[in-house]
Specification:
heterodimer, A: alpha+beta, 6-stranded antiparallel barrel, B: 7 helices, 0% strand
Chain lengths: 262, 165
Amino acid sequence: MQQIIYFFLRNKNFLLFLSLFLLSIFINFRSNSYTSSKIINSSSTVVGYLYDNITNIKNYFNLIEKNKKLIEENKFLRLGIINTNPDTISNSINYNITTGNVIKNSYNLTKNYITLDIGRNQGAEIDFGVISSNGVIGIVDKISNNYSRVISILNTNINLNAKLKTSNHFGTLSWNGKSPLYVQLKDLPKQAFLKIGDTITTGGNSLIFPKGILIGSIKSYKLDNSQNYLELEVELFSDMSNINHVYIIENQKINEIRSLDE
Amino acid sequence: MNNIVKNITSAIAFILIQCLILNNINFLNSVNPLLYIYLIIYFPIINNRTVFILFSFLYGLSIDVFTDSAAVHAAACVSLAYFRPIFLKLIFGMTYIHQVVKFKNIDLKQNLFYISSLTLFHHLVLFFIEVFDSSKLILVFEKAIFTSIFTILLIVLLNLFLKNK
């Protein structure tokens, strides 16, 4: 017994190091799947509050640019109103939209997250989709009462259903961790007819995003290792280093659809 | 007592500088210097090792909370703290074993070597855990080396700044 205690005392630093190191690795691995520890993320109240204030100060410096973007967007929306017919409006009533602001954004890591200033109190929930005026941004994965954390599309763990705008061939959108300007679309059937510059949108197979939200344009494509599927390099429409106002999309029929799968 | 207060205040200052300013630099889209390891690199040599390791863990974890990086920084900081004596022994040799190394008066060449080796070690551990994919080893090395250059540069600058003061 004494021997064991001596052993622990002699190696206490090594054991401490080992346990802390393994603990960190464990936290890290758990965070790779959706469920992870609740403390270590920036939607916690203290850190959220801090980022909120800093963003307030920052916002004063780019008001002009933001106004320009809003005007652009208004223009786009007005065009949309003019061009929609009553049929599509009744279809899209499944989705509810809330707006929010980005208070923390990263795009330089391999697992990037964005923090928004809206939370449960403002009607956001986990698994809501997040888009900007230019395209898809990510998916809400953690939430507190006033803040929420979004898995950015620039996160090596994200997988989205995406399709060609012109046809219904779909594949899986993910990111290889290299350039924040490009994401990769995999498993697209090779019989899909496409050319460089074609638009990629969200596919209808996802419960999170409605069909047809813009993602990016094709920059290059090649056959993958199996020679049966195409692998595309997609240039994002939204500049992930410069996002501010975002829209959070709620699929109101999500539970109904999910109950079918059970 | 005075030392503890001093270390904690500088830790908070480093965390805030790192998370609110340095993490927004994004040089070439993805390179951010990690100046915060300055505190671990220049932690007083005569210390209680257990406390030092625990301190580094909490320090790294606070960076993680800000950057949403799920204990990646904590793991790298703990390794840095645990393996620091080995680097000290390698670089300062007998002066370290006799416990007469003073960070204030080591010569520039030795200092630079010390900073670079520790920084590179920390960054390699950090990015290896963050990416954790054997097929992306080149990406890990690329990131570690580019970030290290930036970090080393900033640490040297901070050194000069503190010296002149």
